[in-house]
Design brief:
The complex is a heterodimer. Chain A is built from 15 helices and 2 strands. By secondary structure, chain A is mostly helical. Chain A has a domain of 218 residues. Chain A has a two-stranded antiparallel sheet. In chain A, helix 4 crosses helix 10 and helix 7 crosses helix 8. Chain A is globular. Chain B folds into 2 domains: 174 residues, Rossmann fold (3-Layer(aba) Sandwich), CATH 3.40.50; 155 residues, 3-Layer(aba) Sandwich (Rossmann fold). Chain B has a 7-stranded mixed β-sheet with strand order 7-6-8-9-10-11-12, with helices on both faces. A 5-stranded parallel β-sheet of chain B has the order 2-1-3-4-5, sandwiched between helices. In chain B, helix 2 packs across helix 12. Chain B is globular, with a radius of gyration of 25 Å. Classes of the chains: A mainly alpha, B alpha/beta. The interface between A and B is large, with 35 and 44 residues.
Chain lengths: 335, 422
């Protein structure tokens, strides 16, 4: 039976709505039952779910492989942090500025690539190049701390200050949960709208899409801009949660790779894939470390080996990711 | 490996004899006195050691870990009655992981955190330590901001970037005074990473205040991943500066000297006001005789300290295949972080975070490994008594040449030319 009342839930059957509601209720109660450590892990999970969702718009929906999404995380982080440190502007307004800057960067990269029909691995290389030279540029911007880093002032407060994003991990947990839920809802809306269908058509066959009258350049541009705009708030969150930014860390290639693992393992192009991927990777990697520690084994780098192993398994046995077969088993819509 | 419980040797019934009764009575008496004995013996202090054992800083993290590993046995040798238990964690050279691992260690019962060889990770861990009320003793991290946040549980036994340069510039002047030779001009070359940029900022801020006897003609930066420094060295040579001042890491330090030899540039000396690279083992093995006479003004082991000798002996015993010289800096500061925590515990006699923090604030450890005054912290949790040594490479090893009270050899300046080294 399909739900028709709420626009965001439109098209979902009762089982899907129930499972979603249960998941959301469970997540809302995490701070009540989880200790600080588990809470910090859940913050990481939701962070990766959020950025994975944002990257999925570009790759999963529109089929454009970006390996430089750390650029938008970094830009978002630096814009909001600089406005806060130098002008006293709060992170929510800073996030709007961050999104604007990231969208502009996405538009520039998109224009260069799509205007000159740079696609596939060459587009991926272009995105890496932009992230790298932005990193080098920020290394020299002394106003932003340069390579010595930009530090946000940390004050111990009695109460959480949501407006300034200064507070305890519980507050940050609910902020990132809100962001992840909003991203999921937005992506569902996009996927079900005309633009989502156009993106999927372009992803499957750009030539055929063009032949059908879709303005491929325009819709690819929209994908690049939407994805970069969505990624920027993740940077804002990062800046205010960790309170320090270094170009070599925030713009690093490793960060770009880290944020795409979730959607790839969860299921590219699916709505729930990035969320599931983030859960699987982060929680299982932690569980593995915990189990090894219990056995008295300390193996530095085991997490990275585990990530590689997961990727290998998914590529060989579940090329579409974990979510599609799981969704079918649960009787849910894969997308 | 866990052993199985031993199988009982006999299943005979137990008959109460006079001897057994007497033994039982003695046992009971001993058992009755146990609670008091337990109260006097403190439980081991659980120290969470956060270091980057994978990722780009893996070498340094693993090197620091050795300093923590030698600590439990060495503390007993130094007369500390308290026991410590190390809980090791890998920060993976990532701020996100550092924060999560800190939470995990505290969750698992860590009473104190130490680490993490990185300013970004230190900032993230400091927030967790502060929120959870668990003291955090920083072994290596130079960003001044860490101890400027008003934290109550954060203590740093490592110089800030400003202190590093202050000590480095002072030692330069001491070197010129000791050798009776003073250059008039210098060129400053630095790696453009977090540390290099911090050093540059500190040099620019402090240089005018120090009334240095030379002028800096040019400042040249280069990428940490540079594979060729020929252009940068040619530019530096063209300034005709008498002294080359550098802030390097290991790979670029090697590239730099190779290029200087290739371009036959022979300034009066190559001096670092406070950076790694030129005293590391790889530098000596890669450059041979050309590694000699470079000067690094850095926080260092006090070769005349009794504790330093014990640390060296313990290191040799536990890591017979490693040369201490390649690990001195990391091992020294990490061991001192553990020592500081254990010392505070001995005085606090409690694992309570507040009690430990109070004890840390009252720290005064005179017998230490590194050059400088006693380990003590100011109101911000910063040790302002950390000194530095002028290390000059001699016959393939860094030797302390200044300050005089810790010197192992007399300083040589200007350095001999590349072709005059035998």
């Amino acid at each position: 039976m399909r739900i028709a009342g709420l626009p965001l839930l439109a098209g979902l059957d009762r089982r899907a709505v129930t499972l979603l509601a249960l998941l959301l209720i469970g997540l809302l109660f995490v701070p009540a039952v989880a200790g600080p450590y588990l809470l910090s892990i859940m913050i990481l999970v939701l962070y990766f779910a959020y950025v994975g969702q944002a990257w999925n718009v570009m790759m999963g929906m529109a089929g454009q492989l970006s390996l430089g999404h750390s650029l938008y995380v970094g830009l978002g982080a630096y814009v909001a942090a600089a406005l806060f440190v130098h002008a006293g502007i709060g992170p929510w307004i800073g996030a709007l500025a961050a999104m604007a800057v990231a969208t502009l960067a996405g538009a520039v990269i998109g224009y260069l690539a799509f205007r000159f029909r740079v696609g596939g691995v060459y587009f991926a290389l272009l995105t890496i190049a932009f992230a790298e030279f932005t990193r080098i540029g920020f290394d020299h911007m002394t106003w932003l701390g340069g390579s010595a880093g930009l530090f946000l002032p940390v004050a111990q407060r009695e109460r959480n200050d949501l407006w300034s994003l200064r507070g305890d991990p519980v507050m940050f947990y609910y902020v990132i949960l809100g962001m992840a839920v909003t991203a999921l809802a937005l992506c569902r809306h996009l996927a079900r709208s005309r633009i989502g269908f156009y993106w999927r058509a372009i992803r499957e066959d750009p030539v055929a899409a063009e032949a059908l009258g879709i303005d491929v350049f325009r819709y690819k541009m929209l994908a690049a801009m939407a994805s970069s705009a969505m990624t920027a708030p993740a940077g804002v969150f990062f800046a205010f949660y960790y309170n320090n930014l270094f170009p070599e860390q925030i713009f690093s290639m490793l960060r770009s790779i880290e944020l795409i693992l979730g959607p790839i393992i969860g299921g590219l192009g699916t709505l729930f894939g990035p969320v599931l991927g983030a859960f699987v990777l982060t929680i299982l990697a932690e569980a593995l470390q915990e189990a090894l520690q219990t056995l008295g084994w300390q193996i530095p780098g085991i997490k990275q080996v585990f990530y590689g192993f997961c990727l290998l398994l998914v590529i060989v046995f579940l090329p579409n990711g974990i979510w599609p077969p799981l969704a079918r088993r649960l009787g849910l819509d894969v997308r | 490996m866990t052993g199985r419980p031993a199988k009982p040797q006999s299943n005979r019934g137990f008959a109460l004899t006079r001897r057994a009764f007497a033994a039982g009575a003695v046992g009971l008496a001993a058992a009755a006195s146990l609670p008091r004995a337990r109260a006097q013996t403190l439980a081991p202090l659980k120290i969470g050691v956060l270091l980057p054992k994978t990722g780009v800083q893996a070498f340094f993290g693993q090197s620091c870990q050795r300093g923590a590993d030698i600590a439990p046995a060495l503390l007993a040798e130094l007369g500390y009655a308290v026991k410590i238990e190390l809980m090791n964690a890998d920060t993976e050279t990532s701020v996100d992981t550092a924060r999560a691992r800190a939470e995990k260690l505290i969750n698992d019962g860590a009473n104190v955190l130490i680490g993490p060889f990185d300013s970004g990770a230190a900032t993230a861990i400091a927030q967790v330590a502060e929120q959870r009320g668990v003291p955090f003793v920083i072994n290596i991290a130079a960003a001044p901001q860490i101890t400027e946040q008003g934290y109550k549980f954060v203590f740093r036994n490592f110089p800030t970037s400003g202190m590093l340069i202050t000590n480095g510039l002072t030692l330069m002047k001491d070197m010129f005074k000791a050798t009776g030779t003073t250059p008039k001009t210098a060129v400053f070359m630095h790696v453009n990473d977090t540390f290099g940029q911090a050093n540059r900022n500190a040099v620019e801020a402090l240089f005018p205040r120090f009334d240095m006897p030379f002028r800096i003609l040019d400042t040249i930066s280069y990428d940490p991943a540079a594979r060729d420094l020929s252009v940068e060295v040619a530019k530096a040579k063209a300034t005709q500066a008498e002294l080359l001042m550098v802030t390097t890491r290991i790979n670029d330090a090697i590239l730099l000297i190779r290029e200087m030899v290739k371009q036959r540039w022979e300034p009066m000396g190559v001096m670092s006001p406070g950076s790694p690279g030129m005293y590391e083992e790889q530098f000596f093995t890669s450059l041979g005789k050309n590694s000699d006479f470079m000067v690094s003004n850095v926080p260092w082991f006090n070769p005349r300290s009794e504790v330093a000798s014990l640390v060296t002996a313990a290191f040799k015993k536990q890591f017979p295949n490693d040369r201490m010289i390649g690990h001195i800096f990391n091992v020294g500061f990490t061991f001192e972080a553990v020592l500081t925590a254990a010392d505070a515990y001995q005085r606090a006699k409690s694992t309570d975070g507040k009690a430990l923090a109070e004890a840390l604030r009252a720290t005064k450890i005179a017998k230490r490994v590194m050059i400088g005054g006693p380990i003590a912290f100011d109101a911000k949790g910063q040790n302002v008594e950390i000194g530095a040594a002028a290390l000059q490479n001699r016959n393939g090893e860094p030797k302390v040449v200044l300050p005089a009270e810790a010197a192992e050899a007399a300083p040589v300046f200007p350095m001999p030319g590349w072709t005059k080294r035998g």
